[in-house]
Amino acid sequence: MDYLPEFCTARVLILGVGNVLFGDDGFGPQVIAHLERNFPVPADVCLMDVGTGVRKILFTLALSSARPREIVIVDAVDRNGTRGQIIELLLEDIPLEKTDDFSMHQAPTSNLLRELRDSGAQVTVLVCDVGCVPQEICTGLSPLAASAVPIMARQIADRYFSPA
Amino acid sequence: MTQTIVIQPVTRIEGHAKVTIQLNDQGNVADSRVNVIELRGFEQFCLGRPVEEMPRITTRICGVCPWSHHLASAKATDAVFGVEIPSAARKLRRLCNSIAYMEEHILHFYFLAGADFVMGPDAEYPVRNVIGIVGAAPDIARQVVKVRHMCARMLEIVAGKSIHPAAAVPGGFSKPLQPAERDQLKAMAQDALGLAQFSIKFAKENIFPKYLDMVKSLGVITSGFLGTVTDDGSFDVYDGHLRLMRSDGAYEDFPYDRYTDFIGEHVEPWSYLKFPYAKQWGAFALADNSPSLYRANTLARINVCDRMPTPLAQAELEEFRKNFGRPAQLTLLYHWARLIELLYSAENAIQLLDDPEITSHDTRKKVEPRKARGVGCVEAPRGTLIHDYETDENGLLTNVNLIVGTTHNNSAINLSVRQAATALIQNGKYDQGILNRVEMAIRAYDPCLSCATHTFDGTLAVKINIVDQDGNVLDTLAN
Known about the structure:
The complex is a heterodimer.
Chain A: H1 6-9, E1 12-17, H2 27-38, E2 45-51, H3 54-63, E3 70-77, E4 85-89, H4 110-118, E5 122-129, H5 143-160
Parallel strand pairs in A: 1-2, 1-3, 3-5
Antiparallel strand pairs in A: 4-5
Chain B: E1 3-7, E2 14-15, E3 17-23, E4 29-36, H1 42-46, H2 54-57, H3 66-81, H4 87-119, H5 130-136, H6 138-159, E5 168-169, E6 172-173, H7 179-207, H8 212-217, E7 224-229, E8 241-245, E9 251-254, H9 259-262, E10 263-266, E11 275-278, E12 294-295, H10 298-304, H11 311-324, H12 333-354, E13 372-380, E14 383-391, E15 397-403, H13 405-408, H14 410-424, H15 432-443, E16 448-449, E17 463-467, E18 473-478
Parallel strand pairs in B: 2-16, 7-12
Antiparallel strand pairs in B: 1-3, 1-17, 3-4, 5-6, 7-8, 8-9, 10-11, 13-14, 14-15, 17-18
């Protein structure tokens, strides 16, 4: 029996990454929740709030015999840019010093994303520049991050929810 | 000129950690520290909340071991409410725990530690990782993926979801297991047992003998041990009482809710993570063979128990003790002990599924809020996990204390790194392989150093800066 999970066989896999206990770090999961509440999700699209467990998904995908055509990471970033701004991060933008680092915690690991891309999957990283993530537990998004959630969700739906 | 070597972050463990190695003028190790990022503010965040929310909230603490927090929290809430949950609920929780253990131990052995042993600690850095294993052992990689998928699917069947579980509730378990589901799970559990048997056989034949010299020397310290046992001294990771064992094998047993009588928490100014110690045995000292030093996690649990309650794991324990005695102190034996636990977890899952009561519909009791204290304790894969809650008469939290598994090993991790670094870095000479061996000493403990946050900012990297006393960078090692 081949125990392949849905996220391996979906056409599009969208992963919301982050910890909702740490303010704007919960941006990714909040986008997933917004999509699930407000949009009809096609049957071949898999939405997952993976919290801080994304590396398990990525490692499984890297070694799996089946993978989605599109893999989308939704996450928060601190780039000291315009807060609340939505950015598509290119894998090539990731510093070279990070490329061979297989830290299990650094998620999404750039190495795995590159491997998945090189294996034929279209890998896209969509992030919101949230500024500072709190060092102590502090639930809830900042107003700017919260306002970016529906914008990000609309972009994702427009781009990925149409039939293949 | 003195030098500081910094390894940040430590690769292939779960969480953020920085290792700082201070060399003296002769280029030998003068000191070392493992600084970790810890979950901060959680206790304060919980105050005033209804205690029944905790089993759901705590699954968000860590994406690595959500089930351990979920179950420890559920047990603490049971204790706060003063309820004895139905037997079927206890068995369902145990079943989920065993399945989660299988998934975690497979993940650690093959993905986290595997590259060290399958590829070798001196392999070139780019291949000393998971993809290297795929290239070196593709059939093993495929089987590992299959069984891990299967474990996640098993948890979905039993509990509705594997990520961010919510099935363990105050008073029991939210849904019974149907007979058809049980039958489906039994076949899966047999597959998992097959991988567990293969894994320990493979390790004993191909890994441990090859690296025996390293096992006998890397990161070795002398300590006591903390783990859970049942009333007859058998191994258990869900329920029982705590056993604190000295390095000479003498031990003391105590119930969970008396842990503060035996375990103290020391604070060092350079670390957010506390340093638990066996306070009845002596004052805190960050020193090898300190009377109050103890370790938790797989090796500790194997050491403290008198026997394994399942036959295949018991046979492995007997062989392990024949080779290494009791208590065994060699740090890299954590990996061997982990495989014995993997075997037990698969056997235990099968035993539970064979129990007719596992499909009982009596899975939950009603609870009423009251002013009380409740302590819930499970053995997380990474060590004894304690959730300690106090509530007012309305069931709202007035106090919360957590001791997570890895915290118990904070002293030991620091000492093992110091031991490894001292032995391997001499006269200022080091290279990538040596530094990876230092990290191996940490990975043996399978530490979970708080998966609290991670933003995709690309600023973290494995970079080693060698600096002088004035902070001038003398050299940089990077991949």
